[in-house]
What does this fold into?
Amino acid sequence: MILIIVFVALIAVLLLSWLSLMWDKRLTNVKGPTPFPIIGSGHLLAVDSTEFLKVLKRLEVEYGGSATIYLSSMRYILTANPKLIEGILTSTDLLAKGYSYNFIKPWLGNGLLTSEGSRWKAHRKFLTPAFHFNILQNFLPIFCKNGKVLREKLRNLANGSPINVFPIIALAALDNVTESIMGVSVNAQEDSESEFVKAVEVMSRIASMRMRNPFVAPDVVFNLLPYKADQDKALDILHSQTRKVINARREELKNSEITDLGADAEIGLKNKHAFLDLLLLAEVDGKKLSDEHIREEVDTFMFEGHDTTTAGLAYCVYCLSNHEDVQEKIFDEQKAIFGDDFERNPTYSELHQMKYLDLVIKESLRLFPSVPLIGREIDRDVDIAGHRLPKGTTMVIDFFNMQRNAELYEDPLEFRPDRFGNINRNPFFWLAFSAGPRNCIGQKFALMEMKVTLSEIVKNFKILPYGEEPELGADLILRSRNGIKVILETR
Ligand code: HEM
It folds into this structure.
């Protein structure tokens, strides 16, 4: 008897789940695979991280650019359709991020990347001046100094053996971002075993793992696993370091009797603590920021500004390894700027003269966008470019596959910097830094750092191919499971 009741209950649950999915599917005109009761289409996405981007592509192609899929009963729309992506990114009210951003909240709280509504709007407005070129110029000597340390580390490895450049560049990028955002150095390149460096790695790894693995994602499960203790330990290190830096700078400002930014915030911030000073001294809605809000913003910029530029640089070095001709063109451009004095640091305006390097960076970020996917929550029924998007949908916006679409780019898998030369393309076909109100606030910072670092590398080394393609996976950033390997030869 009990068996019969269990069986009937099971059938009823399956039937209800199926009916509810079928009813839900009618809310959107974006087609997708038929979901199964209970699991939806979860089985299609339960793949290795290196398969994930391929599965997305297959679904997008099969269903005409965008596909609706269900993870259990949750509705997702995957899209690589540039018209739909443009409509979402330029909207002034579809600004909420997706569920997966929750996994970095223990570290970043409600900083600029993860916040929404009025908090995001107010902070975006007051943080924008921090990326004015007046302030960015403060960071140039930092990037140059760390670029030279990187060069020396690479010189020691330029012995004909393959080098996985990702972890080496990551330490340089960490030094760049801590010195410019916090105003202090953690010397990651010299002390890669430091507990701060390790804690950054642990947090990035845990957040990525939760994004990929739906079984460890929910808090109720995650909190029972040993990862939780690792996360707590890493957070303790990261948050206390940030708080220490904030308190020290607050004390310095107090001792110098500086209490506000002065009449011209951009000019008044010409010092190496520019970013922190803005957070400590600016007022939002007539009030100074709380210590916790400052901490969240500093951590957000530390996080967003380190792995992203690392990936951007490492994949660019990889692309160059397969294209000697492109390296030589960059080298010629460098010679035209520096003459024979390769030891000299570039000026801000010389960075602008590196026009060909700009094209190279743009093309490598097209093929290997550091942030391959982003999410958006649709919080009202909306029709965009002929797609009916019901309230409650999570959009998965697939920059990676869009930027490799043969309808947008001729021979899309070829690395050809000149394709960006004189052609006026639709700007929404290249979205490495996203677009619209929630685009990357650090874009100019990143491009400046990338140019300084690549200039240092190409001036000093020939980059040779190792012959192993990166096995790409989408985590928080575009990762390669087998590293990013090249061979270096000193020039
Ligand atoms: C090659 C390097 C970089 C790439 C490709 C990149 C890409 C992106 C993308 C695609 C977004 C949109 C994310 C989303 O909508 O969820 C974003 C947002 C953001 N980026 Fe970057 N980024 C880079 C470097 C940086 C740097 C160096 C910083 C800071 C120093 C930074 C700070 C931020 C912040 C704070 C946001 C959130 C903006 C908001 O929501 O208002 N990024 N970035």
User: Anything to note?
Assistant: Residues 97, 112-113, 124, 300-301, 304-305, 308-309, 312, 370-371, 374, 432-434, 438, 440-442, 445-446 surround protoporphyrin IX containing FE (CB under 6 Å). Residues 216 and 286 are 42 Å apart (CA to CA). The two ends are 82 Å apart (CA to CA).
